[in-house]
Every structure is written in structure tokens, then in C-alpha cells.
Design a protein that fits this description.
Elements: H1 9-15, H2 18-26, E1 44-48, E2 54-57, E3 61-62, E4 70-71, E5 80-85, E6 92-97, E7 103-109, E8 119-123, E9 128-132
Antiparallel strand pairs: 1-2, 1-9, 3-4, 4-8, 5-6, 6-7, 7-8
């Protein structure tokens, strides 16, 4: 897939820390309950750490107790790309930034999530950058 922002991997490596590169460009995962935004209540916009695209608003963030920041809906329907993921011996839905293709996390659907959309976007904190409202 062609993305609006398309850089060679060497450039991504130079612009991101090793941890950011591992998650964003190699579809890694940060350890649960270790990310800087897991328990954040600050209002604002969460953007892609790799390219700055606005992805989620804080008013869609909720406490899912899964170990990662969780949202029930992206800021705009075209802000993220959803792909079937067959890694780790299971079928999941990967969430990527639609602007640069960076890995963000996974989305899970089903009744039982306390959200208006019955969805839980579990997103790695290291994939995001929060801009507080008014900031």
C-alpha cells in the first residue's frame, strides 16, 4: 500500500528511537502497563509519533484495564487502517496509521466492551504523542 508519507527504513531508523522503531515500523508491542499514556486523563489529541497524523481524541479513551491506552473510536474514520493479522498463532485486527503505515496496536470488537462502538483500540503509548487541549 502506498502511504502519503513514504520514507526509506534508514530514514525512519534515524528519526525514531530504537524502541519507537521496533513498535512503529516492526509491529512490536510495548510491555503492558508500562506506557506513558496508559493511565493518562489529560484532554487532547493523540497523534502518530512517527508522522504527526491526528488519530484519537481523549474523549474516546477509556479504562479497559488491558495494559495499553484504549480508545473506542478513531478521531476520523480514515485516520487509521485496519489489517488482518495472523501473527502469534491467532487472528487479530492490526491498527496502522493511514498516513504513514506505522503500527499502532490492535482493535478488538464485541459485546462486553463498555463503549458506544463495542470496540477497544489497544494502542501502544510509544506509537502516540499527546497534545493537550489548549497546548
Amino acid at each position: 500500500m502506498a502511504y502519503e508519507i513514504d520514507k526509506p527504513e534508514e530514514q525512519w531508523r534515524a528519526e525514531l528511537t530504537a524502541e519507537e522503531y521496533h513498535v512503529l515500523r516492526e509491529a512490536g508491542t510495548e510491555r503492558p502497563f508500562t506506557g506513558e499514556y496508559t493511565d493518562t486523563k489529560t484532554t487532547g489529541v493523540y497523534s502518530c509519533r512517527a508522522c504527526g497524523a491526528e488519530l484519537f481524541r481523549s474523549d474516546t479513551k477509556f479504562d479497559s484495564h488491558c495494559g495499553w491506552p484504549s480508545f473506542y473510536d478513531p478521531k476520523d474514520s480514515d485516520a487509521v487502517e485496519l489489517l488482518e493479522d495472523h501473527s502469534l498463532g491467532m487472528v487479530r485486527t492490526e491498527v496502522r496509521c493511514a498516513r504513514c503505515g506505522s503500527h499502532l496496536g490492535h482493535v478488538f470488537s464485541g459485546e462486553g466492551y463498555p463503549t458506544p462502538t463495542d470496540q477497544r483500540y489497544c494502542i501502544n503509548s510509544i506509537s502516540l504523542r499527546l497534545t493537550p487541549d489548549g497546548g
